[in-house]
Amino acid sequence: MKVLDSWDEKTDKGVILGLGSSSQDEAFLELGYTETQRPYEGISLQFRVRDVDAIAESLRGRLEFSGPVERPWGSRYLYLEDPAGTQVILFEGEL
């Protein structure tokens, strides 16, 4: 995943991640801040990535997140949340 765009303007803050190897790919994930209600609590999207530490470093200062954390089964997890409250998990390791 690559950070393709990010913004931080008063109450509007977010980032767009490319899910492919270049910005020409058509899969994107947008995460941002919103003050609206969170109707999707309890739902999560999970994506396996090659280097969760590199992604965390690229997001640092652009978006709030938790981790990376090593889980008991050996995978490393990075926890994010989209504006609607959907948890987004990026992990490195086995399924």
Topology:
Blueprint lengths: L1 E8 L2 E7 L9 E5 L11 E5 L3 H8 L6 E5 L5 E6 L5 E6 L3
Parallel strand pairs: 4-7
Antiparallel strand pairs: 1-2, 2-3, 5-6, 6-7
Mean pLDDT: 79
CATH class placement: Alpha Beta
Proper CATH architecture: 2-Layer Sandwich
Strand content: 35-45%
Fraction of helical residues: under 10%
The low-confidence runs, each spanning 5 or more residues with pLDDT under 50, are none
Strand order of the largest sheet: 4-7-6-5
Structural class: mainly beta
Terminal Cα separation, in Å?
Answer: 18 Å
CATH topology: Signal recognition particle alu RNA binding heterodimer, srp9/1
Number of E strands: 7
Give the CA-based shape: globular
Would you mind describing this structure in some detail?
The chain is mainly beta and 95 residues long. The protein has a single domain (2-92), classed as Signal recognition particle alu RNA binding heterodimer, srp9/1 (2-Layer Sandwich), CATH 3.30.720. Helix content is 8%, strand content 44%. It is built from 1 helix and 7 strands. The protein has one helix spanning 52-59; strands spanning 2-9, 12-18, 28-32, 44-48, 66-70, 76-81, 87-92. The strands form 2 sheets. Strands 4-7-6-5 form a 4-stranded mixed β-sheet, covered by helices on one side. The radius of gyration is 13 Å and the shape is globular. It starts with a strand and ends with a strand. The model has no long low-confidence stretch (mean pLDDT 79).
